Amino acid sequence: GAVVSQHPSWVICKSGTSVKIECRSLDFQATTMFWYRQFPKQSLMLMATSNEGSKATYEQGVEKDKFLINHASLTLSTLTVTSAHPEDSSFYICSARDWVLGQPQHFGDGTRLSIL
Amino acid sequence: QKEVEQDPGPLSVPEGAIVSLNCTYSNSAFQYFMWYRQYSRKGPELLMYTYSSGNKEDGRFTAQVDKSSKYISLFIRDSQPSDSATYLCAMIYSGGYQKVTFGIGTKLQVIP
To answer: A104, B45: Cβ pair inside 8 Å?
Structure first.
């Protein structure tokens, strides 16, 4: 149980384009999902907390207009990197918690984003 | 000072060895402690989680928490080459908010 699926796993695109990343909880409902960013040889940094049916809560220093988050259903949250630039290249990972089972967060397999 | 300190390694051990991975933390408000395993280019996989001080065992893995010393450990017995990965400790404050604070991760290599 508690499977989190993330898509796509890898995307390469030109500077200035927008990229959408999907995060799905496959076998449980997630009222809250989390978006992280990880640079090489660094730990995961929380970007924002995504709440179903309401606005996301962004961490300090994260641009809301750059990283748009939508959590329209109990099993799907999306992160859109708008007008992406090379400095946005990173590994983006989502997670969700199964409140029914009471377990800690389970993570997706991440999306490697490369902006040329 | 970081809230969670973890030696990034790398740590190389021969197959079959007992591995000890550790983290220290500074904030006594942390109540839930987890260990994740992360293979290259993959998301973290939850290995162990525990609440409060003591030991928790699951197969070859034992998680240990010492709140008085603000120190947590993960022991891996009979280590295998497939255990080669980065191991992240993680912690949550008490209460409903689920923000997780991660260590930087220790890279482990088990040599056949």
So the answer is: no
